[in-house]
Amino acid sequence: MAMIGKKAPVFRAPAVINGTEIVQDFSLAQYLGKKEVIFFFYPKDFTFVCPTELIAFQNALGEFEQKGVAIVGCSTDTEETHIAWLNTPRNQGGIMGVTYPIVADIAKTISANYGVLGGEWEYDEEGGFSFSGLPVAYRGTFFIDKQGIIRHESINELSLGRNIAELLRIADMWHHVEQFGEVCPVNWTQGQESMQATREGVSSYLTKNMDNK
Questions:
Q1: Which UniProt keywords apply (predicted)?
Q2: What is the pTM of this model?
Q3: What are the residue boundaries of the structural domains of the chain, listed by start?
């Protein structure tokens, strides 16, 4: 089920912050009223596509911070595995230098509540309780506003990496909508024309920007 417009599920879980420190009760609640959050899930530490994504988020961290957006990652690995990966050099497949929080969803409840867990618990024919599917998170990404409401979500299959530039665009669009009360048309980027959410507004935009193209 789509989570757009709904409150982001609340959790408290272990996390690694600043690349070195483990905290046991990390929560997104600390950002309420202060910052938007991009909360993203990835499958596993010490894998292949994942380090490219986590490092790309780190490389763009300054841009997100300038926009008032916090970055928080999450996987079903333990906090100890997160620490080990954070202390592994990049030329050895590690993510040394990543500083934003990485949550340890050991019980898989966070991934399940956000709808990104690759499988689920179920009863087998003999009445036993077993896990069916992949016990890791898909590449789920959620843009959460300052009130804790999810405004954007996307979920990629394990082999499909995210586009970080698109997430910067999502943040720009949300800020524009909040500031000006207008809507952002296809392929909109900061500085381009937006439009009023009226029949006249869309007609004007289409005439000026999309006719005969």
A1: Cytoplasm, Disulfide bond, Oxidoreductase, Peroxidase, Redox-active center
A2: 0.94
A3: 13-162
